[in-house]
Write a structure and sequence with these properties.
The chain has 243 residues and is mainly beta. It contains two helices and twelve strands.
Length: 243
Amino acid sequence: MRFILILLSVLTVPVSLYAQTEKSYTKNFKFKYGIMGYYMVGMTYSFNQSIEKELQKSFGNTLSLSKTGYCTGGGGEILFRSGLIAGGKGGVSRFSFSYMDSAMVRTADRWGFVNLGVAIVNKNQFLLYPYLGLGWGSADITVKNESANTQNLHFDKNMPLKAGEARKYSSRTPIFELAFSANYLIAEEFGIMLGLDAGTYYMADISEWRQAGREVSGLRTNSLMNMYFKLRIGIGLFDKEFR
């Protein structure tokens, strides 16, 4: 609930900027075409429980994986005269560490997308558009033995975890994204661009896991879905035309 309230409050920022800027123009213009590159950072929330249930088989029901985390990444986009917006981005979502008496566990997602969207608002330095993404991702689980004894993992029986040892398990899969982006250029044609992305991504199949190149067959997980919002900061270069 807190995550949703924060998201809604941040979404009001571009709307407020848009309303204020509208009052300052006597003649409207739009971006005809252009390019933008950006860095992004934000928060993410995981709806997945299959990983937690599987790890509880080895570490007990007291294990509770963090559902909130942070995400970072970067990307670039091209605005075409038709209003289509094409681009790509990549990054990582990391969730908080979960500590127990005998172990530490952390999950993360890595993702890369090719995106396609269409501008629904293109007016006076503002660009708002929904977009879809298709790409390749990886769900990661890092486990560290915090005890002085060797630990047996039910999903990796042939490789007990030595005292102090950390190990990462990964599952690579196609990934899909549905999102909305609101952006504001602090100039009329070239300058710093600020924005906000809100959306969700879905990993369709995380049933095949590997560790250091070898297959691990004991993790019975399925799909994964996360929600996020990310702040953007970057550079935009556009050609404009008056309406």
